[in-house]
Amino acid sequence: MLWRKMIRDLKENKLAYLACITIVVIGLMVYTSFSMVIDNLNLSQKSFYNNQNFAHGFAEVQAMPRSELEKLESLPGIKQIQGRLVKDVRVLLPNREQNVYLRLVSINPVKHAVINDVQLMRGIPLDEREMNIWIDNKFFETNNLDVNQQINIIAEGKKRSLRIVGMGRSPEFIYAMRTANQLYPDPKTFGIAFIPFETMDSMFSEQDVINNIVFNLEPKAIYKEVESDLKPKLETYGLKSIYPRKDQISHLLLTQELKGLQATAQTLPLLFLSIAGMILYIMLKRIVEQQRGQIGVLKAFGYTGREIMLHYMSYAVFIGVVGGVIGGLMGIALSYPMTSMYQHFFNMPGLSGKFSIIYIIISILLALGFSIFAGYQGCRSILTLAPAEAMKPPAPPVGKVTWLERVHFFWNMLTVQGKMAVRNISRNKGRSIFVFLGIMFTFALLALTWSMKNLSEQMLLDQYQKVETYDVKVSFAKPLDQMDAQRELQHFSGVMKVETMTEVPMTFKHKWHKKDVVVRGLTESSSLYNVLDKDDNKISPPKDGVLISERLAQLLNVEVGNELTVKSVKFKDQDDEKELRVVGVIPQYLGLNAYMEINALQDFLQQGEMITSAMLRIDESKVSKLQNEYINSDVVSGIEERAELLSKSKELLASFGSMIYILAIIAIITAFAVIYNSAIINVSERSRELASMMVLGMTPAEVLSVITFEQWFITFFAMIGGIPLTKVFLVGMAQSINNDVYTMPTNMTVISIVTAFFITLASIWIAQRMAARKIKELKLVDVLKSAE
Amino acid sequence: MDTLIKAKGLFKTYLMGEVTVEALKDVDFELYAGEFVVILGPSGSGKSTLLNIVGGMDEATSGELYFKDTALHNANEKKLTNYRRNDVGFVFQFYNLIPNLTTYENVSLAAEISPDSLSIEDVLEKVELLDRAKHFPSQLSGGQQQRVALARAMVKNPKLLLCDEPTGALDVETGILVLKLLKDFCASFGKTVVIITHNAAISQMADRVFYIKDGQISSIKSNENPLPAEKVTW
Fold it and tell me: Is A696 in contact with B101 (Cβ distance < 8 A)?
């Protein structure tokens, strides 16, 4: 019988409970889907790394005789060390205007226990006497290639034809990007080709050398120690870089993604469950107060306090179970599209949506835990209520003077309705705090969402609209003489302007902080690459020191005026340590760089007037001619068009769009639930007061204004409180996102605050309109006739 | 005497579950400006229903009701709200004050919305509560609370003051004080006051007494010499 009572009670305020369930569902949907995706990614990553023997360490050198490698195997801590040739080459695909590249990675087809072994998905083994390759599956599928097809590449200026005999993937290229500023993998224009060492060796002039080393460690070895042993040995061969697995770009980005997912899966559901818990607590507390008489009667019948309490708790349990089941199921449903999205970005085997009952169980338990706790808090007063006392009406609410009344100027400004509202805020402190927190959270979530939108635009578009403004950038395979390169490019037809750039890898040290970066040398009056300060003012690259990015300053813990200790493989003596003064800190969202004036940088290196790339302003119609002319040259490693980079950034931004609307909808539902619930509780609790006012001749709108004034009043302060909370969210978000590729700015934009402001107001307004109906339904006569 | 309220053939039926209850059956009457009327009847006789309809809080099922020349029986919610706002004052058995407003604020809540309100201080002085202006309802006795409710009704300067068992929750002494104030409001301001009660003693002070039984006015008696409130006892 009590069960029926519950269902009817719930029905009476269905919208309020529905809002509560919706919030539970959202929280658990996020929890379940994210957890399942995380599990999937983790499992898949782990087994892929194990099965394919993924390297612990990586090194790049200029050129090292293959025979020298064996000597390194005996170094302490090294379990396995293998050398490879890795080179990017241009692919000639018929009917394609874009530049398409393959990274040739040599493998040894006969060797066992290969590090970074390729998982062959289709085709036959490689033959080291043949011009045959395996292609990574993403490139293979995206470009509609087929086994036994011939593919033409340009190696050292010569056209070569290679036969595709298989398709596979490697743990090294789960997230395959050609350069770090590519933003995301683009398998249409970049792929990996695995090729027998002998075959690859025969295509390049230097014979029997390797330029890339991978190694595995003994179980107890420490990477740092191994690196310090290995480094001096490799420096002889022109060491470019040496880094552990954690800095390997594909691994790094996958790990970052997992970290971000984990953080979301842990925090977001808790926030939503807390809000739902608060709503439940308030609703139940209210219902118990309202049904005092009924409780008294039940007790008088002989129901125990526990039984009655269980009855009221069943409201909470009902919401918990319904929310938990729906949330869990929807989470599972959502995990499939999410997994397929990750499949699109991360190239791993076994990445498929798996149904996991455990998360449904956890969802239900979580929802139950929260709702039972909230429910218990809401109705535990039943236990102490004696039946006779319960049947008597509760003591009338006591009016009290609030501290705000001492602010005479403010107090005198209020109408009587306003005064009622302000006193009510302090009368129902718990509920006021709930509304305050709910609105603050909503506002911050909205402001965060819009800030993220603005900031990602700033992050991705600024780089190619304000900073890099060239039409085409030509990168060189090896340093070239500045004058020669400039002269040559200047005379190319259609070229209006040439600016040269020197990019040098360096290691910056400050105290115990250390970071590998690329220092860019720019001409003093450069107009094709603009170094901008916080307010978008252009600054000239310095001659007397170095400009560094904000994130770099943070990582190195340096300020303007500090001296950095600098090492570089480009110094004449690689062991040399030099000093550089930090003369400025600038924002940089893509990449992690430092800037100097080009001549100052060349002087600093003492290697002559060498450059590594050139930026061009060029007649658009001449771009393809330029590409055809130079792309096959062995001194040119790449030709990038800014327009293409920009359009890729825009594509990426568009994919954020739907995410933003989902978050906005979540925020709006939350605001609605908080405001609607607090309004209808208010109406039912104060029906007598409100009816009295209507009898006095107030219109429903005037009566509603007492409740809405109260809510607007709280909203005002909650939104102000939401601004710093947004900042906290943004900083937290940035910390989980930032890496060497992206640095998310954390400045709140005015537009995001204004947008959040208006959306919050709109959702509150709608919730109040809905609650207003409850006021119109008030039966004046019934309400007022009853005893107080 | 000017007619303030005119009722013709009022019916009121309620649907209580599946049973139809006839609360008012063909009721006709008139209320005149400046008179003091007591509606007397046992509980369940329909007197509250009548008061609620006259006060614009409820609508008759059929029949006609006029305030001066304005028809109320077909008025919409907005018109009824305006009628309650400008022309009627209510006093209830259970005061119905706003708990978190002080005496003064409760009265001014009503004063703020009427176009023709009296001075709040004057009214509070009249009900002898000026010294309690800053007290909240929970700090007042029942009699004091009812006087605040009275002040709240009077301050709007209504032409018609409707009181539903205004002394029902009060002791005799306090009850008489409230009745005296009501009579005074009627006499010195020329307002029409209607009290519904099942307490026959109160009818001694009325100009006219309506006897109501089973939803019908059984008789209307004019009182040649109404007693002053002080002389009434029960």
Answer: no
Which secondary structure element, helix H or strand E, spans residue A264, and what is its range? helix A249-290
> What is the average pLDDT score of chain A?
85
CA distance A273 to A705: 30
Closest CA to A667 of A471, A510, A439: A439
CA nearest A419 in B: which residue?
Answer: B101
Q: Which chain A residue shows the shortest CA-CA distance from B134?
A: A401
**pLDDT one-digit tens code per residue, A564-592:** 999 887 787 777 888 999 999 998 888 78
Contact predicate B143/B170, CB 8 Å: yes
Higher pLDDT, A232 or A744: A232
Of A420, A695, A698, the CB nearest to B101: A420
Q: C-alpha distances in angstroms, A260 versus A46, A170, A234, A519, B80?
A: 18, 24, 36, 29, 60
**Model confidence pLDDT, tens digit, residues B112-141:** 888 889 999 999 999 999 999 999 888 999
Q: Measure A418 CA to nearest chain B CA, in Å.
A: 10
- Shortest distance between the Cα of A452 and any Cα of chain B, in A, equals 44
Q: CB distance A697–B101 less than 8 Å? A: no
Which chain A residue's Cα is nearest to B83? A697
Question: Could you tell me the pTM of the whole model?
Answer: 0.72
Nearest CA to A435 out of A82, A761, A714 is that of A714
Whether ipTM tops 0.95, in short, is no
Residue A292 has pLDDT above 60, yes or no: yes
Do A416 and B48 count as a contact with CB atoms less than 8 A apart? Answer: no
pLDDT for A364-402, tens place per residue?
A: 898 888 888 888 888 877 777 666 666 666 665 666 677
What is the full DSSP assignment across A581-647? EEEEEE---BS-EEEEEHHHHHHHHTS-SEEEEEEEEE-GGGHHHHHHHHTTSTTEEEEEEHHHHHH
User: Which residue is associated with the tokens 């089941």?
Assistant: A325
Q: Is A219 on the interface with B (CB under 8 A)?
A: no
C-alpha distances in angstroms, A476 versus A4, A9, A366, A495, A500? 79, 75, 57, 18, 11
